[in-house]
Amino acid sequence: MSVSLFMTMCLHDPKDGYYATRAAFNRDFTTAPETSQIFGELLGLWSGLQWMAMGRPAAVNLLELGPGRGTMMADVLRAARTVPGFSEALEIALLESSPLLRSVQQHSLKSERFIHIGDLSEAPDGPTIILGNEFLDCLPIRQFVRWEGTWRERQVGFAAGPELTFGLSPPVEPPPDLDASGDEAEYAPALDTFVDFLSRRFIRSPGCALLIDYGPHSITPSDTLRAYEAGRQVDPLAAPGSADLTADVDFRRLNNLAKQRGLSVYGPITQGCFLSALGARERAHVLARANPMRAEEIMRGAGTLVSPGEMGERFKVIAIASPGLSAPAGFTGAG
Ligand code: SAH
User: Fold this and answer.
1) Which position among 40, 171, 173, 291 has the lowest Cβ density within 10 Å, counted as fewest Cβ atoms?
2) What is the structure's pLDDT at 332?
3) Which protein residue's CA is at the shortest distance from atom 14 of ligand 1?
4) Percent of the chain with pLDDT over 70
């Protein structure tokens, strides 16, 4: 089978898939919202600024893609309350495929009004702000390899023994927009569907999506499929369904697809640059002064989010918006 089908089965199988079975998935990797509340709070303020830039519509959808434990949305909504009129306008929707994580989110957000959706087509119409942290890296990827002059697709299957192994398909026709500049390239088919959704929506009503993920700035990733279990990187084929599978995000293609459809694109810029421009350090100082017993932990968390050696540089932030909206906060002057 292709790597993309393997990824889909490992992550989403309703009985044995990673997201369906791992409630405590936070032990396998630590994401930005689980590192510090400042991450979600700054995204909440950013969303409030976007809402103002849209002309403060009386109702605005706030859609989170893959909310995990619901921690980020709780922090976003706490900060949103400081923007007059914004909380009252919010219609919240969470895109989540895992029933187990849906129930964790129900618990984290028990005092909030929101709906769950399982597919982007169910997202309510109207002005929309979309937030997604570490969502695009779970989209299944196909891996293409040029071998003896022809493109082949990497496969997962059995060779001689009972162990799963990687192999190559017979020659295949690669997708027309595959980056053919090297001998290996990854390709997430779902990026097209995703950008189609954004363009249909953002051309009709004002909207902006903020996506935070890891991946190179402007080259297509190759050979980046990774598996994480209990905080350690493991062999992706060793125990299907028990490890989280991810791949670098192709920001180059995402950027091209969005621009081809007439959307405005800002970034990608590094997470460190983005959060610093929004005042991460200042917010950390304020929080630390208000909670002296937790001051060290608060400063450490903020440092992890922005330091180049930790999450600050590897993670990138990209915004995709309706044409005509002003440049979103955090990107002004970033190009
Ligand atoms: N944003 C969270 C969690 C990231 S893990 C955080 O930063 O902590 C990825 C999340 O996306 C999980 O909630 C997973 O169940 C969800 N997810 C992955 N693929 C999905 C898909 N195709 N449709 C809906 N949700 C998906």
Assistant:
1) 173
2) 74
3) 66
4) 97
